[in-house]
Amino acid sequence: MKKNIEPCYYGDYLALDKILGAQKLQSTKYGEPAHEEMLFIVVHQVYELWFKQLLHELNAVIDTFNQAAVKDQQLTSVVHRLHRVIQIQKLMNDQIGIMETMTPQQFLSFRDYLVPASGFQSIQFKQLEISLGLKREYRIDFDKQSFYNRLSDDDRSLLEALEEKPSLFELVDKWLARMPLLKTEDFHFWDYYRKATDEMLNDDKETIERNAFLSEVERRQELKDWQSTRENFDGLFNHETYEDLLNQGKFRLSHEALLSALFIKQYSEEPVFNLPFQLITALTEIDEQLTLWRYRHAMMVQRMLGTKIGTGGSSGHHYLKKTTESNRIFLDFFNMATFLLPKSSLPELPESVKRRLGFYLQ
Amino acid sequence: MKKNIEPCYYGDYLALDKILGAQKLQSTKYGEPAHEEMLFIVVHQVYELWFKQLLHELNAVIDTFNQAAVKDQQLTSVVHRLHRVIQIQKLMNDQIGIMETMTPQQFLSFRDYLVPASGFQSIQFKQLEISLGLKREYRIDFDKQSFYNRLSDDDRSLLEALEEKPSLFELVDKWLARMPLLKTEDFHFWDYYRKATDEMLNDDKETIERNAFLSEVERRQELKDWQSTRENFDGLFNHETYEDLLNQGKFRLSHEALLSALFIKQYSEEPVFNLPFQLITALTEIDEQLTLWRYRHAMMVQRMLGTKIGTGGSSGHHYLKKTTESNRIFLDFFNMATFLLPKSSLPELPESVKRRLGFYLQ
Amino acid sequence: MKKNIEPCYYGDYLALDKILGAQKLQSTKYGEPAHEEMLFIVVHQVYELWFKQLLHELNAVIDTFNQAAVKDQQLTSVVHRLHRVIQIQKLMNDQIGIMETMTPQQFLSFRDYLVPASGFQSIQFKQLEISLGLKREYRIDFDKQSFYNRLSDDDRSLLEALEEKPSLFELVDKWLARMPLLKTEDFHFWDYYRKATDEMLNDDKETIERNAFLSEVERRQELKDWQSTRENFDGLFNHETYEDLLNQGKFRLSHEALLSALFIKQYSEEPVFNLPFQLITALTEIDEQLTLWRYRHAMMVQRMLGTKIGTGGSSGHHYLKKTTESNRIFLDFFNMATFLLPKSSLPELPESVKRRLGFYLQ
Amino acid sequence: MKKNIEPCYYGDYLALDKILGAQKLQSTKYGEPAHEEMLFIVVHQVYELWFKQLLHELNAVIDTFNQAAVKDQQLTSVVHRLHRVIQIQKLMNDQIGIMETMTPQQFLSFRDYLVPASGFQSIQFKQLEISLGLKREYRIDFDKQSFYNRLSDDDRSLLEALEEKPSLFELVDKWLARMPLLKTEDFHFWDYYRKATDEMLNDDKETIERNAFLSEVERRQELKDWQSTRENFDGLFNHETYEDLLNQGKFRLSHEALLSALFIKQYSEEPVFNLPFQLITALTEIDEQLTLWRYRHAMMVQRMLGTKIGTGGSSGHHYLKKTTESNRIFLDFFNMATFLLPKSSLPELPESVKRRLGFYLQ
């Protein structure tokens, strides 16, 4: 035990006087105590505590990537922290079931006292979105307005300052784009890859054309989708095409970052790619869990209010459903399967490359 | 112990020779064994076993409602069975995480051997949807075609026969519509209710109009939504209006059934309404879990294939996302919060009514 | 919307300044910030918030049972609240996985600053145990001492006062014991039951004696267990025998309460027993979840510390494992399966009884 | 798409005729169909399917370790597979909740038809235990007898043959023991470590002695526990002492393996240790989940049968509780926290060592 440590007691350490004294029921204040308001408050306070923890982890990860160079040892802890983020997100998703033990009628018994409070006013949630990479330009129009109108001046400044800082998305994009491997290598991976994917796409087209189950309407739709996939592939091999697609919103990652990520995913079993692969997978999962949270949240609000307006004076579930898909951040990782080849179609890495991807020791 | 019972052994009882001998890897057949194909098969087989169990429960519930009269004792077991359905659904939703331990690249190593198999060919899943109430007329157009084109003749006949039978939705609708209470009572609940809801709606409108946070665009949208809610309320009090809304697809339940359900939800603490309330809540939950399953399933397919076509020769995740919301069955229960009043705005039930809603014994 | 309601804002409503300002890291105070201490604090604060919510629900349930008579309408809400308790418990159990994302080495980086804080000092957890029914006389010896030694004077007074009040266990016991049905009925259920269970027990004995798989040691053990089950059955039919078994700690429920609970479980499909059956099942589940929590908690502490002493200066996981089984409260409900008969061996209830168990209305 | 691939249909591919035709209810055979027997069968069949998948993963991992040398690339896939095992185990644990939707009374309606079937007859579960490392010598006495008596000749031969093969425990032990690092290094880690742990232990002793909350009985117990921890530490530094402790059952890993594991855990952030650390953590988690499964399973059996004997003719839950703790396999990893030092007490690795632990590339 270290010397000169003052005794530390459970209740003081956790500041339980603050934590457990922070539930002031509005319904009690107005003389009509509603039993379920306690649940409503506690559930939201727990969410805010988890948000605080998520921000604690994300900020540490951002700080790591915000350095001149990321050391190998640090990547271990980055992945560890992102895995913790995911586990907390899963718990937060399950927590929606707790809120749903409140019936709509029970909610109505205190809803009128809460005007105009609204979950959209959670600054920490906005910090989370912005830190991950959901900056103003990516918000849907409706969202943009609601978002800034509802803020206090202090909060608006805080968030605007945060928007100026590099987000995790931007930092990871740069880190991937900088990966030295692809540029120094004289192994012609991308030529090989191009040939193999051309073949794969042609096979897919043939499958659609021969598929007896499809109606003509469906076939046309499928071929149109195929055409768009074809164009995305063209972007991989042509920087200008890629920039066009980027401007159209078909991609968010830079061209270099996308290629690095693709290479890592293709050769993920190489030891040197193990941590980067885990990083990409974790970010994909974080995005998926956040999407799921929005979706379940929207359903819960609908179940609680139907088409009634919420306490913030707008019908929350429409808004929430709209943002479910539009606010995705690492969607390029999520969609990356589009571009993957099966192991058997990939060229074996030359020995010289392999050696550079392994550990020195063994 | 009963006499004359032959001994029963674990392996025989569970037919483990069949169950554990039913994993034939296509990749092995073609000489390129893919480790993850086992997972793919086992996960799907487990889903089919759960589907069988869900059908076992649903069919029992349907049989109960398909009688001249439903006895009180039977309602207990209906609710018990529906709660089991929900718990299985939750497990099935979590099971998607198991499939996601397969990387897209691992899937690619055997995907080509599976053409044209597709999860859309699960007859049991279609039986489930039809038994719940998703009949042909409610399927989206795209779905209708895919659905019937892909079936074998036997399966098509089986499903078409099932469509002729009453679904759980139809049976519950009739059961609710027949509930005697509302018709025999001379307690003027609906007059009272109308007055109270008018007030609530006017308050909501005022809130929208006074909400300083809304932009003009948002306010117009909110008022439009409010107007549509207003019209739905009008339907409650006017049978013709209701029929119009029903034809427009704004409701699916019959007018009488909706009113009964609403009454039950408003007075759910009355003992006689306890089981009916649990029934409605359970059906709402089943619908929510099914919706969640579709949504998570769609995300999983997207993560596995990106925008590539699936083994069935079409891009599954578009289709799946489209059906996520459109294939909802008990949506009226889900949206019922729209019409609920807080307890404090409800008239106290007259003693005579209360007595009839309580138990004789106490 | 109600008039004269002051505006209520999200951050103020949830007292986020208190909640989010309550994380003071000891490691920071001593100049060696440990990243994971934030997780440690937040996880414990979330637990304390859930404890507060559980106490809120349990106290409301206790108040209901603490009245002269429990109305039917109130039973609905009792069951609703206990179901919420269970769902929160399940989330709390899953939350242990979050703590386990902290490695033992990470914990070591701040453990020394926490002496002598200890989870055993959570007053709310003790309130929970006492409110449920874990009073001093049921604690194991080791527990008794640790329990009271570590408390501040105020906390000791608070808990001692709570021990004087009736617990949920005691109130439910009384409520069950008072159930009128069994005493007024001239239907000789228990005679019938005695005959049927004698037969069942004799069958079981025969099965043990004929079981070719058992070694002699095992057979002796099984017959000894059977004998003890036989004695418990005798207690059902003889008040004095029951009192003896109660004094030996084989039962905790009063004789009358146990018989009522057994009758309810046997005829649970009768509408009048639906809510009481749900109540008993919910209390069983609460006990199971609490047991699971202790067990997982003990494993987590062992994983974090091995056989090292904890910050409270004792090796927590030994203590926790000891209390896992010994601190069970509603164990009689859990073990009740011992006494159940299959439906087919039960007498049909006479019409006169059935009518009294149904609803008047139908 | 590959050429010459025959079409593959969903139902055929999954052998649904076998899978869905494998539910033969005993209660139906004897003319008294019990609704819940379907659930009982399906739940067990799903468990057996998951067991098959777990064996598929474990056998692949065992094959990898059973080679002359484990390549880095292979370690990636070992960890990936073990993570999948854990996720399946978590689902299996949650699945116990499904079985618990069957009430004890419902189970009684078909229990008598199942004699003498018993879950203990699951060969796959035994294969799993043996493959992980639970060989005959580690089974508790009671278990040993039941285990072999109940088997058919074929199954006994199969399991006895499996016992001759190296288990995952043995293979991982050897792999750890062979790790070159510790032997070739002239960096005197263990001298340093010894000094630091001596200090830590003395501090702990002082904490116990000064802890005012402990009664004298408790203090004696704590000091006895401390003494035993002290002896375990001595084992680390003295091969003979270690062998003694091994023979007493205090350790299961070989001395060399334990030291390697400890070094890996202490310096887990080094890139070369990332995968080994993940491996150790995954095995710890597998053991924890298996333990949890036994515990929840024992509780479920108790809830279903009370102290009644099971269909196998013995009281299952006693047996199950006994094996919960005794059948642990990777307990040394679980307890390893005992020996860990905080990062701040560890010597910085010399540059020469660090370089060998990093990647060549960067």
UniProtKB/TrEMBL annotation, chains A, B, C, D:
SUPFAM superfamilies: Indolic compounds 2,3-dioxygenase-like (SSF140959). Its EC number is 1.13.11.11. InterPro entries: Trp/Indoleamine_2_3_dOase-like, Trp_2_3_dOase. Substrate binds at residues 40-44, 111, 311. Binds 1 heme group per subunit. It catalyses: L-tryptophan + O2 = N-formyl-L-kynurenine. Heme binds at residue 297. Pathway: Amino-acid degradation; L-tryptophan degradation via kynurenine pathway; L-kynurenine from L-tryptophan: step 1/2. Keywords: Dioxygenase, Heme, Iron, Metal-binding, Oxidoreductase, Tryptophan catabolism. The keyword Translocase does not apply. Its cofactor is heme. Belongs to the tryptophan 2,3-dioxygenase family. HAMAP family: T23O. Homotetramer. Heme-dependent dioxygenase that catalyzes the oxidative cleavage of the L-tryptophan (L-Trp) pyrrole ring and converts L-tryptophan to N-formyl-L-kynurenine. Catalyzes the oxidative cleavage of the indole moiety. This is Tryptophan 2,3-dioxygenase.
